[in-house]
Amino acid sequence: MSIxxxxxxxxxxxxxSSATELELFVKNFPILQxxxxxxxxxxxxxxxxxxxxxxSWLLVDGAGPLYLGYLLLGWRQGFFSSQCSGCEAKAxxxxxxxxxxxxxxxxxxxxxxxxxxxxxxxxxxxxxxLIEFVRGLRKRYPxxxxxxxxxxxxxxxxxGNGLKPERRKRLKTTPMAQExxxxxxxxxxxxxxxxxxxxxxxxxxxxxxxxxxxxxxxxKLKLSCQAKDQVx
Length: 232
Ligand SMILES: [Zn+2]
Known about the structure:
Elements: E1 3-4, H1 12-34, H2 36-41, H3 43-46, E2 54-56, E3 59-60, E4 64-65, H4 68-76, E5 81-83, E6 90-97, E7 106-112, E8 117-123, H5 127-140, E9 144-157, E10 162-175, H6 182-190, E11 206-214, E12 220-228
Parallel strand pairs: 2-6
Antiparallel strand pairs: 1-3, 2-4, 5-6, 6-7, 7-8, 9-10, 11-12
Helix pairs in contact: 1-6
The structure holds zinc ion.
Residues 84, 86-87, 89, 112, 114-115, 117 line the site of zinc ion.
């Protein structure tokens, strides 16, 4: 487990486009529902990162942008859903965060597709389950894959003949999708110009997960959760 001392913060450019993209989200949510399976099946759509959707916490890795596919999976499976305080319909949580996760409390923002309201609220418990869900998503559906590859390089030796050839290793990063803006997705969906499906079927999503915090005194807080897709 990696240790971080500060939470995730969106970039200034993300913050500046956040309101506009959130407006698009609210206006076009029925389209996201209609094309949900197409979005989950296409890596370019799945890994689109709306600037208003992210999560943040301290100490544990996994905080960061919430990709469109993550939002839809989280909503579908109930992790990113809350009851709207206005009309009691199922709202979609698109952002959440806390400081230290030990207390279990967190704040979140959610959009209710039924009465089209956005609310920001506090929940006194449950953040560990959300954190573990997101960490599981990042592991199972990474935005990029890093792997070591060998290449023909050279090393320098003072005592020898200077540079000599040697097989070396470097870390190679492969993005899993092409960048596509949130706005562009709606343009493509509305025009019926869908990108080809290039993603493994995620309808069999099954995520066993556990999270253990171990403080200096040896006291452990453990959480296990099992996320199963509800859709046949
Ligand atoms: Zn509502």
